[in-house]
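Blinded run. Sample ID left blank on purpose so nobody reads anything into the name before looking at the predicted structure. Input follows.
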Amino acid sequence: MIHNKYTNLLLVAFATLLSLQYGKAQTMMAIPSQSYTYSSAVRGYWFTAPIDFIITGLRVPSQAGSGLQRIQVIRINDNTPVSYPTTSSNFTTLALIYNATNGVIQTVNIPITAGQKIAILGTAGTVNSYGDPTTVTSSISGHNVTLKRMGYQGNMPSSGIPNYWTEPSGYISRVEMYYETCHTAITSSPNPVTICENQQAKFNASATDVSTYQWQVDEGSGFADISNGANYEGVTTNSLTVKNTPFSFNGNKYRCLAMKSTCIDTSLDAQLTVNGLVHLDPLPVKDTTCVHASKDLEVKGTGSLVSYKWQVYVNGGFIDVPNQYPYVQSGNKLTISDVLDTLDGSQFRCVVTGICDVGTSTNLTLTVNSIPTVAIPPKDVQAKQGENIVFSVQASGKYATYRWQVAGPDTFAFINDGGIYSGVKTNILHVLGVSHVQDGFRFRCIVGTSSGCITPGDTSEFATLSVAPATSVNSIGGDEVMVLYPNPTGSSELYIRLNSTANTANMKYKVIDKTGSTVLIGNIENQGSRTGVDVSRLPAGIYMVELLDEGNQQVARSRFTKL
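Blinded prediction complete.
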């Protein structure tokens, strides 16, 4: 396959920098000058790539004639390229240009990796521009390459050659190859930066053989180019400024791309840490609790918060709350475990220290609702039958509520407005037209609160209603079942005398104080006798005596006064 026509060859031993139509400066690999033309079969050359580079342009020289350009670039996949007459289809087409305008460099972008075996074939129409029948040495970016003869036994079809062969020597078909190599390299990557919210951060990178830079940010979903604006400047330089930095930028990652033409090198990424300023939610203007309750005060906020210090307003200024009973400070919360009524109207606030600044909350005024108690209980009332009477009670504390109860011969029960009663939920109870039946009725009041505090209420002592007041008795008379004398008594002895009709068998008596408690109990003497009761140890007051039969059923009931 070696032609027998030789001419003197001139090897173009230098690389020519061309400015092509599409505006990129690139280098043409040196090829020998033309010897003559050859047609009827397509030829080319192959070489082993010495470095990584990019084929950016291809052209069949005008010496091949005026025909349309037909160019094919293949990567030979055989470990050793086959030699003529053997052919092989074990190759990959990297570019196929068919019937392109004559004399115009064809723009391509074909990345080549060092070590690959690359072959380029081309004709103008069906005409090859032949050059140098011997082994040709050229270079790519200063690295020597050997161009060896290869071809296909036929003109190039529109679908490209189906197989190839190589020969160790002979004319090669001249096809200009333009390339770029990448020497662009990052020499220093940006470092992590920590700032406070609203401050400025700078990221710096450096590179060699670079035309421009592009900074990128990863906000959590992958890196993307950034543009100059409210928060960024210098995005196409080696120094990126992040300004007016919001807290939301915390955790962003930044990297720099160094670029020259199609060459790109990427820096390592660096993280931005933004410590947020203290931003506190307002505390409630007012809050309410109950005396002796446990109360939590809590402040909420955002930012890089470090510590909390609660304060209380005392004597014209705020002072730190001591971390001792009844106060417990835990993080953003202050617990008052036993709220005293002296804290009513106190103002609290919290001073929050952050990494970058200190914030003070708004003030909270604490209202402490005391639990009302009975201050003055109701007093006994003596009345004539048909009179209107009142019982009154006084309570200490605010928001007191009242509920009256009455006990006749039985236990205490709540009463309602209506009939003879009114004011049953006030501190004054009105009873209309009392009757002798109500003699000995006991009245008391339960004092509660409307403040929302949980309390069982404070129960007053009871007051006794006497209707038709007992007459002072020093001897018995009349037809009553039981008579107590002397009444009132200032001595140590009280006597119980029953009339002659009473059956005294197995009878007993009980003495009951104003609280409803039984303070004395004893047996009744035989019929016709008087029964003495030692009341010397009883405190002064009004007492009830109940007479019980052997079945513990009440037979009679009467009141006496101990002076």
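Unblinding after everyone has recorded impressions. Residues 1-24, 470-479 have pLDDT under 50 and may be disordered.
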